[in-house]
Request: fold
Amino acid sequence: MKIIGISGSIVGSKTRIAVERVLNRMKKQHTDVEVELIDMKEYQLVFSDGRDYRDYTGDTKTVLEKIMAADGYIIGTPTFQASIPGTLKNLFDLLPMDAFRDKVIGIVSTAGSAKHYLVVEQQLKPILTYMLASVVSKYVFIEEKNYYQKEIIDDEIIFRLDRLADDTIYSIQATEQIKKANESVYPF
Reply:
């Protein structure tokens, strides 16, 4: 099983720290799981121009191929101007509409204050649902005050991140079992 963590910003470190926490929990608790972090600040993605994702080159092609080959995802998004960052939205625009069909996504959201708690509900979940993802129902929202010197210091947030890691893995396993059962009933 391959899980891709996506840190959806080209600035800052809080979202990456949170996504890494989830991926590290997955590696520790689920030894059969392979994880990889895609930190958007480490890649130069072009703007989407509507072509097939397989026709891009360079970093764009590399990132898209990794995402398409994964079984599940942890998507981390900061909140900028009460919205997801354009970097993350562009990534979604580069992918085909059904890129996340039958794939499970756990979400981590970071923001400066609690005022932005519903950005995931109002903006990110509709995009992922349109792209046919199965989204883990409980996402983790982390405020600025939950960090100190580039570490998450809130025990409740740490517990919830660990739970998100486990819930994502279990959801992927359940999805795989359902797909196998459906294939035996609907072999065409």
About this structure: The chain is about 45% helix and 20% strand.
